[in-house]
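**Tokenised fold:**
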Amino acid sequence: MSSVPSSTTPSKPKTEKQKKVKSSGRTRIVRTLVIGLLIVAIVVAWQVLSAYNNSTSPTIAGRPLSNPHTHLHSVVLGEKPGVLYLGTHYGLFTSTDGGHTWPQSHGTLSNDMVTSIAVSPTNPNVLALIVIPTSGLGQPSGIAFSQDNGTTWQISAPSGLSSSAYPYSVKAGTGSSGQFYAYYFYAGWLETRDLGTHWYPITRGTFSGMQAPSLLTDSNNPNHLFLGGDQGLFESHDDGGPLVTYFSHSGKRTEYYSNDYHATHTLLCHWSGILLLARRKYADNTGDTSSHDNATNTAGN
């Protein structure tokens, strides 16, 4: 008796299964490569944009303000002929030919905003800057001092100030190359005579909160100061001691400037006009002299 062969379903050729496996493997490889390339492209684009947005250097050589993210905070003439300083959002730039050329590829202290600049009248190589970190993190705000025309710097900040105090203005004194004045909002005017090693307050009380403050020094007497702000115009003969009031205007803006201080006359720019402060000396019968000040409004009301 012969056996009947069992019927079986014919299986697909092995070559078809192998082709499907290989095709699926290639798809996964291509997909992985595409995703990897996209990730690389995104990372590269992010780095390029980040470098562009975070670059502190000028985009055009020799033009300090060509960077679209920077702006000018302060411009000051140096004590040497032709020297000009720019305080920008990304550091300090210096020209030695009256601003025709700016050789720096990037600003000095480029991680800081330089909002105020002062040059010592007794030593043109001594500078003081108000520096505020652009990121708001890391190095705190303060006064940067240089004794070698900006080659090296040391940053100082007065101790004991409230957390709300921040620097606004720096002015050079006339007593020595280390004498500078710094104005801090919510702290007032402070003085150093040793390039920031020690600081001393020279205004107290209501004067510490004076807005839009200005300070003018006397080239003939380092203890003779004029101070101005929204509370008025004041004078001190002992380096910020008892203040003589010339004008008191609550809420009015009072600022003044003088290119040259003269022993007999000083021009002051006041909110109501230009004031000519005349100091006349009188001799009594003993030969002693005394001074008398007259303030005349030469323009305005």
The two ends are 138 Å apart (CA to CA).
